[in-house]
């Protein structure tokens, strides 16, 4: 539960997803210290661990995708920052862009939320939100905003 709730940040009674995304910042900062050639391995491992812990937490809590599980936000936020250099500007912009896509859940994001169960159902919609966020953040970066 400690990991599934983002070190208990998901237990904060209001905006657990937002606090879970804040808890993701150290995981995003790992992108500063590993070679970019290892990003895929790091992110894949993080997603698989997130699916496992989310699945176990759902079983413990006996609820489908309870708000206190925020390890999915951690994985999604790291995906968001995977296509740009990590700095204060991309951290902040990525945070807001990811929260937007995670909350709105349009199209493919909602599809993954509604059509998968267990840990995969908890995590994959946030990965899709992270992919959309990464693309938007990359476009903003290439346009010279950061």
What does this molecule look like?
With 146 residues, the chain is mostly helical. The protein has helices at residues 16-23, 25-29, 39-61, 71-80, 88-104, 108-115, 118-142. The radius of gyration is 14 Å and the shape is globular. The termini are far apart.
Task: Kindly summarize this structure in a few lines.
By secondary structure, this protein is mostly helical. The protein is 66% helix and 0% strand. The longest helix has 25 residues, at 118-142.
The proportion of residues in beta strands is under 5%
| Structural class computed from helices and strand pairing | mainly alpha
- Helical run tally: 7
Principal-axes shape call: globular
> Which radius of gyration do the C-alpha atoms yield?
14 Å
Report the sheet with the most strands, covering strand number, pairing sense and barrel closure. Answer: none
Task: Give the terminus-to-terminus CA distance.
Answer: 36 Å
What is the overall pLDDT average?
Answer: 95
Give the proportion of residues in helices: 55-70%
Instruction: List how many beta strands DSSP finds.
Output: 0
The quaternary organization reads as single chain
Extract low-pLDDT stretches: none
Give the ordered list of helices and strands: HHHHHHH
